[in-house]
Fold:
Amino acid sequence: MANIKKGCYFYELGCGDGRVTRLAVTKFGVKGFGVDVNPILIWFANLVSRFKKLKHISFKTENIFDTAIKDANVVYLFLMPKLIDKMSDKLMKELKKKTIIISHGFKIPKLKSQLYKTLSDEPYPTYYYRL
Structure:
């Protein structure tokens, strides 16, 4: 739905065990970066990626507000509404034009005018924004 192209930079903020980043790397050939504050989940994400011999993928334990995202072509979020609201200022400030933001579960109110597609799947919809 996001027309992700091979070689682009895919960032997942709050990646958990990294499954979405791994899927993007294997299915679309992107360079994947996952960030989460939980070091155990990041350890597991790295372990699974090494086991699957995935290239062009990395995971980092870091606060998402401290993560440099200026190189991203696609940013994927599955965050709670209050965290999305805080994150939206960072997204608007740091991301370049035409960057795609995918928010699974919750809308990004501050990016309402950049919403271009909604996928209304159960149990959570997915929102696509283009800066």
